[in-house]
Every structure is written in structure tokens, then in C-alpha cells.
Design brief:
heterodimer, A: alpha/beta, Rossmann fold, 7-stranded parallel β-sheet, 8 helices, about 35% helix, globular, B: alpha+beta, hypothetical protein PF0899 fold, 3-stranded antiparallel β-sheet, about 30% strand
């Protein structure tokens, strides 16, 4: 007999539940963790590369790199001084999810680190929907991408705890209106912590590094 | 293409509920998607046709109910629908709006035989 069965279940519940388990593992190990998201080319790996030497002798850092293929990113992280660098190849998936992170976490003794940096796959849409269970979500926006991105990708911009605006050394050369950009961010995310910096010149990196150190010490 | 894992999850939830009810076949799925959820109906449909094959849900029709984004200004409490190039409050220019609707991504119900 035909019948209607009410369900009312969030479709991403399974991922969200696993993300909570990841968070619990990270918490009990006493490690601070960040999920770094951005479009391809915004400077995720460059930021990690510039950050790691500045954390030397201050924090023990593990990096987990998500990429569709290749281990270029984890190789760069290891070279820059990560105590551990693990590559997740998503095999075509455009984002990391909580299951993939769980698999990578199992390869690490989390108690041996102060900070875990997870580098997500370059993409401004999909990673926003899949919680990983890290303490903070970070978005890197870069000046050449254009000032309209908060308007085009509100899902990504509204859900992050910190925003890094990279490549500020290019501001004189591109039509990027910082006011318009910031207004789009603030509209849905007024309390986001913002860092303006350049991975190329090193300008502004200190404040970002200090923020990581302070959060890792908590 | 994040619609693939979403569609897989959708199928799993629907099958769980159908099996619990002892249903022989799932004929329809009623899905609600907010405009802020970044999901494309056609893309879900595309994956659905592939992954639902040889399950209780093979051939089921997907019904999408789209929910328009609605925000409420936390300064003047105006409710508004954001447009493509401006998200701040159209009345007072306030920032930090609360999202009232538009983030939905859920399976509301299924019809079974």
C-alpha cells in the first residue's frame, strides 16, 4: 500500500557526526587544528610554507594535505619544516570530508604535536559543506581573484573563523576594492578574524603566526 | 561535484527508512534544498540515476523544493532576500545578518509502496 514516510533528516548528518568524533579525538590529544580552504592558486601551500619556519622551536606541527592527485603539497610542507606531513589523495573528489580526515589522523600520534594544519582541496564551493571537525576554519582569499568572491561564494565566506587576504603586494596592480570585499564578508560574518598579508614579501605574516601560537597554547 | 557524496547519503537515508517500514519500493523522494546550500538539482538527479540502480529506490522520482535565501538584519531587524552583488541590509546598511532560510539540505519524506 502506498504510504508517505516522514524523514526530515539532514543529508550530511553522517559526515557531521564523524566530524564531531574527529573533534573529540583532537581535543583529547590536546592539539589545536585548522582547516585551510581556498580556491586553487590562492596560496594555501605557500602560506603553510611561510608559516612553518616561523613556528620552528615554538610549535610541533603536523600537516595533512588534501589533493586530487600528487604529493607535491605534502612534500613542500615537509621541506618547510613540518614534523609530519601526510598526503590524502582524494582520487577525484573536490573536497576533504570527515572520513578522509579520520583516516589520516589514525596515521599520526596526535599527542606529539601542538598544531595540525589541514590543507583542503582548492575549491570555494564543496569544502564549505563538509565539516572536518577541526577547531577553526580558515579561508585564504587572494587579491587577484577579485573583490566579488564573498558575494559569489557566501557559503564559504560565512562559515569561516579566520580570513587571510593574501597577495596584498599586488593591490596596486589589480582592481580590487578592499571596502567592497570586506563589506561582503562582514554582511554574513561580522566577527571573522582577518589578516592581510603577502606570502611573497612576508608582510603581515607575524600577526597570523602569532594568532596560531596563541590558539595552540590554549 | 560534491553532489555525489550528497546523493549517496540521500540514498542511504531513504533506504534505511524504507527498510524499517518494510517497503517494497521507494517511488518518490521529497528533498528540500536552500539556495545557500550550493547544491545543483540536475547534478543530484544525474548521480541518482546511476547509484539508485538495483536498489529499492531504482526509478524513484526526486522532487526538489527550493528555499530562497532570507536574511534578517541584526541592527534594524529588517528581513530581506539578498541579491547577487549585495548582501548587507538594504534598509540600514547593517552587517552581521542572521540567516533565516536558505541553508536547508534535507530529505523531508519518501513515498513507498
Amino acid at each position: 500500500m502506498p504510504q508517505n514516510i516522514p524523514v526530515v533528516e539532514n543529508i550530511l548528518n553522517a559526515n557531521d557526526r564523524l566530524a564531531e568524533e574527529n573533534f573529540a579525538s583532537l581535543e583529547s590529544a590536546g592539539i589545536f587544528s585548522v582547516n585551510v580552504m581556498a580556491s586553487p592558486g590562492a596560496g594555501k601551500t605557500s602560506l603553510i610554507e611561510q608559516t612553518l619556519p616561523r613556528l620552528k622551536d615554538k610549535l610541533r606541527v603536523a600537516v595533512i594535505d588534501g589533493d586530487i592527485a600528487t604529493s607535491i603539497d605534502s612534500d613542500r610542507a615537509a621541506k618547510a619544516g613540518a614534523q609530519a606531513a601526510i598526503q590524502i589523495n582524494t582520487g577525484g573528489d573536490c573536497h576533504l570530508d570527515a572520513v578522509m580526515l579520520r583516516g589520516a589522523l589514525e596515521k599520526l600520534d596526535l599527542t606529539q604535536f601542538d598544531l595540525l594544519i589541514v590543507e583542503n582541496v582548492g575549491n570555494l564551493v564543496c569544502p564549505a559543506s563538509f565539516k572536518l571537525g577541526t577547531h577553526k576554519s580558515i579561508l585564504i582569499a587572494s587579491v587577484p581573484e577579485g573583490d566579488d568572491k564573498p558575494y559569489k561564494y557566501p557559503g564559504m565566506y560565512r562559515g569561516v573563523d579566520a580570513l587571510v587576504i593574501n597577495k596584498i603586494d599586488l593591490l596596486p596592480y589589480v582592481p580590487f576594492k578592499m571596502d567592497y570585499f570586506q563589506r561582503g564578508v562582514q554582511a554574513l560574518n561580522p566577527n571573522v578574524k582577518t589578516f592581510q598579508l603577502s606570502c611573497r614579501t612576508g608582510e603581515g605574516l607575524d600577526a597570523w603566526v602569532e594568532w596560531l601560537i596563541q590558539n595552540s597554547a590554549k | 561535484m560534491h553532489e555525489l557524496p550528497v546523493t549517496e547519503s540521500l540514498l542511504k537515508i531513504a533506504l534505511q527508512h524504507a527498510e524499517k517500514a518494510g517497503a517494497k519500493r521507494i517511488t518518490d523522494l521529497h528533498i528540500v534544498i536552500g539556495d545557500l546550500a550550493s547544491m545543483v538539482d540536475d547534478s543530484i538527479q544525474f548521480y541518482w540515476d546511476i547509484i539508485a540502480k538495483d536498489t529499492l529506490a531504482e526509478g524513484a522520482t526526486l522532487h526538489f523544493r527550493r528555499v530562497r535565501a532570507e536574511l534578517q538584519c541584526m541592527t534594524c531587524f529588517e528581513k530581506y532576500h539578498p541579491n547577487r552583488d549585495e548582501l548587507i541590509c538594504p534598509k540600514c546598511g547593517g552587517v552581521g545578518a542572521k540567516i533565516i532560510a536558505g541553508e536547508e539540505l534535507a530529505l523531508e519524506s519518501i513515498d513507498v509502496d
